[in-house]
Amino acid sequence: MRVILILIFMLTGFVNAAETNDLSNGQVKKNDSQKLVSWDENSKRWISLDQFWKNYVKENQSHHWGTSRDYPQYSLVSEFDTFLVQVKSGTCLMEFYHSRWRRANDVRRWDDEFNNYSGCAKVFE
Predict the structure, then answer these.
(1) Domain boundaries, the chain
(2) Strand, helix or coil at 43?
(3) DSSP-H helix ranges across 22-89
(4) What are the residues whose beta carbons fall under 8 Å from the beta carbon of 27, sequence distance 6 or more?
């Protein structure tokens, strides 16, 4: 009986490890409460999409311009700077890339759900 329990615990550990290995940073799913969550590779856990953005900004080596309806002054912005733009439908994490502001997801290629989240779907309107 003891051997069977040990085998069950070992197999459960292997299954959980395999599930974790199949996850990619920025992957999105609905949790048990039907809210969108994203896999954070650094913490190895599912977190809210807003928290995922906060973590990315914190880990990013470039300047973060905060949150506003108005974009930062173009002449002061550098490649890979980040900014949370406020639009009517919410906010969207933007990243300065190749001389213009883009949705961070368009630069980083996280899950496509990020482009539909909060204000990102309507950020260019």
Answers:
(1) 24-122
(2) coil
(3) 49-59
(4) 38, 39, 110, 111
